[in-house]
Design a protein that fits this description.
The complex is a heterodimer of chains A (416) and B (139). Chain A has 416 residues and is of the alpha/beta class. Chain A contains nine helices and 32 strands. In chain A, 46% of the residues are buried. Chain B has 139 residues and is an alpha+beta fold. Chain B has helices spanning 39-50, 73-81, 99-108, and strands at 7-11, 20-25, 31-34, 53-54, 57-62, 85-90, 94-95, 110-111, 120-122, 132-134. Chain B starts with 6 loop residues before the first strand and ends in a 5-residue tail after the last strand. Classes of the chains: A alpha/beta (416), B alpha+beta (139). The interface between A and B is medium-sized, with 33 and 28 residues.
Chain lengths: 416, 139
Amino acid sequence: MKNFNFDAVVIGGGAAGMASALELKKRGSSVVIIEREEELGGILMQCIHNGFGLIEFNEELSGPEFAQRVHEQVEAQTIPSFCGTTVLDIRPEGDRKIVYCVSSREGVMQIQARAIILAMGCRERNRGNIRIPGSRPSGVFTAGLAQRLVNIEGYIPGKDVVIIGSGDIGLIMARRLSWVGCKVHAVVEILPYPSGLTRNIVQCLNDFNIPLYLSHLTTEIYGKDRVEGVEITPIQNGALVYEKSFRIPCDTVLLSVGLVPENELSRNAGVEINPATNGPWVDSTLMTSVPGIFACGNVLHVHDLVDYVVEEARRAGSFAADWLAGKHPVRELRVKTGANVRYINPSRVDPSRQNKLYLRSLIVKNDSVLEVKVDNRVVKQLKKAHIQPSEMLTVSLGPDELAQSGMDAQIEVSLL
Amino acid sequence: MPHGGHMQEMICITCPIGCHLSIEKISDEEISVTGNKCQRGAQYAREELLSPKRVVTATCRLKQLSNQTATVGQAAADSLYKPRRVPVRTAKAFPKERIPELLTLLYQHEVSLPVERGQVIIPDALGTGIDVIAERTMA
């Protein structure tokens, strides 16, 4: 078995993995990236639509363009990577961690490191997760899988398509499939409002006159060998109205019903998971419950902009470099979710420096106020013209707001 | 398209608020917009009504592939993971009404390797002055 030794191992070579490795390298640590696919870039490589990079590069790029620009920096810094390599296990042993991984070229390898960055991204929820009744014909795909088939492998999954769930990937695929000659008959959303961005509703559905059924549930998938249609049932006052059910003939169903951080490796390594995000609990330095293991990007919580992923990953890399140098925060305060906040990440802050926090709303509202309280004393108020669950919010907290907080002070963030 | 006096509804996508705009077309070049919370809404409505444009992203076939069709052994296994299409996009927003024509052109077009990120795949597509460029480097 081959053995390697690095200061830090980054697991996952997408935007988060590359950005954190760049920061570690910049701080003088030796670092290696392990990637399951044959090349670095992650999910961005199949996201050929534009809209990436407005914050990071100050221009509107496609996914592959964004990924390649970061990849070029990784190459310029001569950061090594093992591609086509799957991590099997992370074992903390004393103050070191051993990463076991395997590739068809090298066989099983063992990499020793003091710090680990988890950057494995997330996985799509599938039919099993949302329990759609009906038969089990072929022709049911997750939206991201269909995206890979069309954009990378060059296959069109079907001709007449119904999309279940109004997440952004599903909306993007509605446009992509329309542009390759498929007929997209409907997008069906269980909630009374779309879960994707308004921009995508307008440009991916309205441009093609694709109907969006809000407050509707898919109650059956028909077909024996291949999908033949779906049954759609409206929801009124929280109940299914079967008298108003209707059927849409189709040969393909795409599911865009949410993403779940991919944390099997983290769990096996003893990392504690936050049920609100399905990602690890992290402290103010993005370190998980296992000392020396950090997390960033979609494995920590699902982001909506890759620009935020890169920003967060850079901080994770920098904190990991601090930790390798023996620097720890002297004091941390706990951050609680207040009214209308689904989660806030990280859930600890270091009152001696600026902290950047990401949060998600539970409600859709115009003219909202983001309020931060320390022990019931309001320390910050930010006006938000519009909030909705699909748009991540950020807030910065630093010595100005936190300097006078006591040892056991509690911070609460609410949306009013 | 509505003429003189007809109202048209539109959602502004300049920012996440998504104002519902009502647009009245006064003449061929003059419109009146209500419902916008800021000036960007009026500008969006004007562009969207008078000359709607979109950045078009698609893929083109890779030329090399026809003589790389191993069906057995390691070569076949490797080719499973090789991309078969090169992603391309218009360098700027492209007139919306000509998108179907552009897509037909792109799907007929074959690209030879190697290709560089930003390389012009089709210059001056359909005489619009807008180039189609490769989104990534492929060797």
